[in-house]
């Protein structure tokens, strides 16, 4: 399985979690600090947009931000969010399936960096935030063998930058022999045993 396959699989996991999240749970908390379920969905949607634009080298509008609503979710009723996300996610996966998408430089928002690094970051982001959404809404979430190691390596590579930038929490302590994906979650600042209060 190559990098494009891993990214495609990570997108599939995130989309499944979005589709499986009941609208009645959108106000619930998530393991992602300060994000409700609704905000995790919007954050993943923004990630799909970033990934699509990065792979195709489309110009980035600096006014776009995930702070309020991802552009393609603005004005849509929440009942349409899952389908809108699925469509943008499919476009992103298709774009990254082209080998040249992984070559040279691209942008992630306004930041220039190697395209392969962007693909790696996105792979980890989609899996970790997919888990956020799944565990917050009572869904099963299974990361296949191989992809779990890719996510761990991706999280570990961006952790110093994430902690310096304040968008990744301190590493959570887990056993050295904990499952690979649990170690990835812990490295991202999440408690792998997190569960919604009262559920």
Automatic annotation (TrEMBL):
SUPFAM superfamilies: DinB/YfiT-like putative metalloenzymes (SSF109854). It comes from the Bacteria. Residues 11-134 form the Mycothiol-dependent maleylpyruvate isomerase metal-binding domain. The lineage of its organism: Bacteria, Bacillati, Actinomycetota, Actinomycetes, Pseudonocardiales. Pfam families: MDMPI_N. NCBIfam families: maleylpyruvate isomerase family mycothiol-dependent enzyme, TIGR03086 family metal-binding protein. This is TIGR03086 family metal-binding protein. It comes from Pseudonocardia yunnanensis.
């Amino acid at each position: 399985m190559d990098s494009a396959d891993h990214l495609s699989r990570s997108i599939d996991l995130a989309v499944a979690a979005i589709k499986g999240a009941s609208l009645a749970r959108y106000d619930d908390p998530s393991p992602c600090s300060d994000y409700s379920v609704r905000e995790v969905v919007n954050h993943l949607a923004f990630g799909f947009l970033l990934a699509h634009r990065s792979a195709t080298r489309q110009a980035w509008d600096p006014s776009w931000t995930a702070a309020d609503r991802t552009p393609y979710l603005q004005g849509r009723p929440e009942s349409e969010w899952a389908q809108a996300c699925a469509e943008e996610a499919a476009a992103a996966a298709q774009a990254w399936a082209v080998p040249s998408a992984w070559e040279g430089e691209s942008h992630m928002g306004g930041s220039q960096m190697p395209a392969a690094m962007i693909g790696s970051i996105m792979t980890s982001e989609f899996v970790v935030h997919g888990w956020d959404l799944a565990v917050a809404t009572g869904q099963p979430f299974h990361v296949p063998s191989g992809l779990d190691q890719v996510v761990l390596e991706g999280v570990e590579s961006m952790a110093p930058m994430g902690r310096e930038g304040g968008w990744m929490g301190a590493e959570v302590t887990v056993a050295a022999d904990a499952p690979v994906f649990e170690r990835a979650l812990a490295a991202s600042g999440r408690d792998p045993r997190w569960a919604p209060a009262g559920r």
